[in-house]
Write a structure and sequence with these properties.
The protein is α/β, with parallel strands linked by helices and 251 residues long. Helix content is 39%, strand content 16%. Helix 4 crosses helix 5.
Amino acid sequence: MSWAATGPVGATPVVLLHGWGETHREFSRLLPLLPAGVRAVAPDQRGHGSSDRPQDGYTLQDHAADVVALLDALDLPSAVLLGSSSGGYVAQQVAVDHPERVLGLVLVGSPRSLQGRPPFADAVAELRDPVDPAWVRDLHSWFPTVQPVPGWYVEERVRDGAAIPARVRQRSLEGLGTARPPTDAGTITAPTLVLWGACDGLLPRDHTEALIAAIPGSRLVAYEDTGHLVTWERPERVAADLVMFLDELGR
């Protein structure tokens, strides 16, 4: 697993988990906003970015095990996990399987359940290599943004997305869609902050409220005029809410 890191070793560790079809550069606008007191580690999940691309092993449990292996490699007994979209699903699975490794969760536009087929599943099933950047750009139309997003950042997302092999997209999506929701499998005991875009057409409010209900003591912060891609649209506010959450954990 490859990763990028900012902040000094020994600072509060935060692992940033990107969503399906993304890379660690999803956080390229967020990382520079974090203070020196945060040691942020943003890995490429298996098959994505510069990480290894095995033929198999794309279940939710496989992705969660990779996070634990990353903590081991970095000699981190535990960390705060911030997961964007399906990255938050992975974070929930880690919190259920290995609660002792999770100091807290920040779930950003994250689902309670991904069981079933999303509306773009047929398009993904028909995908072949090499992946056309135009296909990635068209896929992004399923996740419309409300706040303005810099053009360079969108182009970076398209380039990174086109470099992910078709089979990785297909098997990762299948692994997410067939997994038992983590909060059905166990109870999350880690302090949890849920950040949700109020204009999220993929995860409506009732879905997000179900996630809150499934995690005892969790807290919801709704971002008005924000869609599903919260880290794309509101990196400054995500950074501020993360720092506040870390301060609360410290107290």
